[in-house]
Amino acid sequence: MSAKALNSDDANVWDNKHSEVRKKPPWRVLFFGSDNFALESLQALKSAWGFSNSGLLETLEVVTLPKQTIPVRSLASELGLVVHDWPYVPPSPSWSLPGGPTSGGFHVGVVVSFGCLLSQDLISSFPYGILNVHPSLLPRWRGSSPLIHTVLHGDTVTGVTVMKIRPQRFDVGNILLQEKHSVPHRCTAVELRQMLSRVGAELLIKTLSDLPGYTEKSTEQPKEGLTLAPKVNTSMCWVRWDQQTTDYIDRLYRAIGTQLPLRTQWMSRPIKLMNMVDIEDMSTSLAAQKRPNAHPGDLYFCKHSNILCVRCQDGWVGFRTLVLKKKLSASDFYNGYLHSFFQEGHHTSTQPGEEPERAANCPGSFHTPASVIGCNGSIEK
């Protein structure tokens, strides 16, 4: 049998044990993963391996980062799987993978939320190359944070892509399988991760059930519709009250707020904003009625619902919890820091274009640090 590649992504489609292409399961699989999105796929592979009638897997081992707190490491250990630390350092150009000649190596690698670039030598070591389960409809949202950017940009449709890994580049390989799904209304990035991780696991098992067939029919990614999903940086957490709308702050909170709390400043002191309320909550409507002349950053405390409302570019947003050295409810913050200010009749706190130094020392408003304004974060509407 010839060593003809199945497509441009395959460098070597040879079975290491039998010196010929294996055209059907069971496969020897090496899994690469790190965070929570990878867990459903790893669990699905283990279940397929443990189910004797499936005949899908012959071997399953795991590669992950060396930290003991990595979710994939914890699950792999719990499942009794062999775990290898990343990175591998090839001892020679003809180095072999874990398992070595005695076990015949591995037919295919599977990458799910691993975050490390892979070399050509590593990819070529697998007869069927390395698959990647990616939580977006590539080429939309290539990069490390597709779930966050899906929510942040208000996408209504998303999905999962199973693709082939290419060396030293993220998310550019041929597509084997892709499945569309609607984004649930007002879901968070965490909720979307949970949903798509299950979809990804199902697509992975489906791909492995006919790996040669899906490999042969794989297609290049479209050139149109490419968007990037870079890693989130901390500057994105800072709210720009005069530049960001209620809708954008809501999406920002649902995209990153459960992992990186939104931030602002009060009296030059940093504050974390937590437990954001629905932007259609009646408290924000009440704030608009009571403070019709408020400016971005101005505060209003809604006593009946215990919500602190903040004026932004086009309306009001509300939060139930804040962190100022320690966690405080909205009422605790109001009673401890704002009550006397508002009791004295100070209802208009800042003015458009007011000097940053003056705004920063106004008890009745939040503000964005000057060092954050204009930095390379996200200032979108």
From TrEMBL:
Keywords: Mitochondrion, Protein biosynthesis, Transferase, Transit peptide
Protein biosynthesis among keywords: yes
Keyword Protein biosynthesis: yes
Example of a GO MF term: methionyl-tRNA formyltransferase activity
InterPro entries assigned to the protein according to its UniProt record, in alphabetical order: Fmt (IPR005794), Formyl_trans_C (IPR005793), Formyl_transf_N (IPR002376), Formyl_transf_N_sf (IPR036477), Met-tRNA-FMT_N (IPR041711)
Domain Formyl transferase C-terminal: 232-337
Database matches in NCBIfam families: fmt (TIGR00460)
Family affiliation: Belongs to the Fmt family.
Protein name: Methionyl-tRNA formyltransferase, mitochondrial
Organism: Petromyzon marinus (Sea lamprey)
